[in-house]
Design goal:
Elements (H helix, E strand, L loop, with lengths): L2 H84 L8 H8 L1 E6 L5 E4 L9 H4 L1 H13 L3 E7 L6 E8 L6 E7 L4 H5 L2 H11 L3 E8 L21 H10 L3 E7 L2 E11 L9 E9 L1 H44 L9 H14 L4 E9 L1 H8 L1 H19 L4 E4 L4 E7 L3 H19 L10 E8 L6 H17 L5 E3 H5 L1
Parallel strand pairs: 13-14
Antiparallel strand pairs: 1-2, 1-5, 3-4, 4-5, 6-9, 7-8, 8-9, 10-12, 10-13, 11-12
Length: 493
């Protein structure tokens, strides 16, 4: 059997099976990744919907309860205007007493939109022109209008506490009296507190790093806990503003502590409540830890599958190669001797002739008196002698030549890139080896030998003309007494 053919076939089968297995594994990986990403997106979307729903709910509730609160703030603002008419010097006002009386913080904002006096001292000196240009423009507009106005749910800039603010310009339009009503200790806020919703979402979803809500200025709503950013991070400010201005969901991915974190910004506006205070942006930060863990688990499974598939593939390929190679081999080789059969030989010989592989010499070898072997010793012994003769022919021809059995006791060899002297030398070697190998048959009065006919291929020769020429040379060898070789040109002479 052709060993190289079996090795090539085994290699092809192993490569094909491994490639098929790799395609299946990669397809599984892609499907798994898609499913995990889809699951992550669904969880983020659910968190997004829940926090937006909480904001919508609390805005609607406050809007319903806001009428009475706004009236109270308006009434108290007018009482402060009366106080201003009596005492326009705010330095003489007792703001802490006023706070205790009203339950609200009082802020005095001058023409430069700076807080010059307040019951909440940390805000004194706060200049809205410097920190909040858009809000500063709104304050100027409200001062010029000269009428009472109020916002919905908003935050204390310094602390992030939830408050409701109202604005009353003084008659001379030099100041705005701002009131701040604290909301977080009220029953309604506790009942509809979206901060609790954010905390729950963070604790229940491993992939969610944080959930925050910022107002239109980029200030965090709610208490400023440790680790919380009071203002939107400058590195993400551009994405935040793009989301707010275009009212579109925006994302950015950054590397923090060696991990990739995705920040998603979802703009929100309470349609039923006017003013800038209800313009907010929800920030959801999430990472791919669960996805990484799933992939790590799958990687171990993948390695195990790959090793198992590789072992099974190699074993299966070797078995299949043997099963396939044997009938393929038999289709092109003689069953008894293992040499090429007539069909395989002629197919290869035609290719050699077309390829013009240098000088070609065609040799026909016939066993003399072989019939007497079968008659005297039986077909079993005859088969053994054929196998022995085939081995001698194959060996003496050389590994780069084309040897075949084309009939019962007839063999052929096609020599390439050899001189006629080298071919006749091979013929003599065959004759000598056959004589030595068959000498024991003399004891049974059987004279077994070989006769050889050699033809030199010319440019116009085909495989059929070479057969014809070599047959004539073989006939000449037998006519001369057998156990010798003859050249075709010698017959012609």
């Amino acid at each position: 059997m052709d060993k190289n053919f079996r090795i090539k076939l085994t290699g092809i089968l192993i490569s094909f099976t491994l490639l098929l297995s790799l395609i299946i594994v990669i397809a599984d990986y892609i499907r798994l990744k898609k499913n995990v990403e889809m699951g992550l997106e669904i969880q983020i979307q659910m968190a997004e919907d829940e926090i937006i729903t909480s904001l919508v709910t609390i805005d609607k509730v406050y809007n319903l309860l806001d009428i009475e609160r706004a009236e109270n703030m308006k009434e108290y603002s007018y009482s402060l205007l009366e106080k201003y008419e009596k005492q326009p010097n705010f330095l003489k006002w007792d703001f802490q007493a006023l706070r205790a009386e009203s339950g609200m913080d009082i802020f005095i904002i001058d023409k430069n939109n700076e807080v010059i006096a307040s019951s909440y001292t940390p805000d004194i000196g706060l200049n809205f022109n410097e920190c909040c240009a858009r809000f500063s423009s709104l304050l100027t507009e409200r001062r010029e209008l000269g009428i009472f106005s109020h916002d919905a749910l908003d935050i204390q800039q310094e602390t992030g506490e939830f408050k409701k603010f109202s604005y009353m310009p003084t008659p001379d339009k030099n100041y705005i009296i701002e009131l701040g009503y604290y909301l977080e200790d009220k029953l309604v806020f506790k009942e509809f507190n979206f901060l609790d919703t954010m905390s729950r979402l963070e604790s229940e979803n491993e992939q969610i790093k944080s959930v925050n809500v910022y107002n239109y200025l980029g200030l965090l709503l709610g208490e400023r806990e440790i680790g919380k950013e009071e203002k939107i991070n400058p590195s993400r400010r551009a994405v935040f503003e793009a989301s707010y201005k275009n009212f579109e969901i925006k994302e950015t991915t950054v590397k923090e502590e060696g991990k990739l974190i995705t920040y998603r910004y979802i703009p929100y506006k309470a349609d039923t409540v006017p003013g800038l205070s209800t313009n907010r942006v929800v920030e959801i930060a999430y990472h791919d830890v669960p996805f990484s863990r799933v992939l790590t688990s799958y990687r171990n499974q993948f390695l195990f599958q790959t090793v198992a598939i590789s072992i099974i593939t190699i074993i299966l390929s070797i078995v299949l190669a043997k099963m396939i190679a044997k009938p393929v081999h038999l289709a092109f080789h003689d069953v008894l001797t293992g040499l090429k059969n007539r069909a395989a030989f002629e197919d290869a010989a035609v290719k050699w002739l077309h390829q013009k592989r240098g000088p070609l010499q065609f040799m026909i070898i016939d066993l003399d008196n072989f019939k007497s072997v079968n008659d005297s010793l039986g077909h079993g012994e005859g088969d053994k002698l054929l196998v022995r003769a085939a081995k001698i022919i194959d060996k003496e021809s050389g590994k780069d030549q084309l040897a075949a059995r084309i009939g019962g006791d007839e063999f052929v060899v096609l020599f390439s890139r050899m001189t006629i002297d080298e071919v006749t030398e091979r013929a003599n070697s065959m004759l000598e080896a056959m004589r030595e190998s068959f000498s024991y048959l003399e004891n049974d009065h059987i004279h077994l030998s070989i006769s050889i006919g050699i033809a030199i291929a010319e440019k116009t020769d085909t495989i059929h003309t070479l057969y014809h020429k070599a047959d004539l040379a073989l006939y000449d060898s037998k006519k001369k007494g057998k156990d010798q070789y003859s050249l075709y040109h010698a017959v012609e002479s």
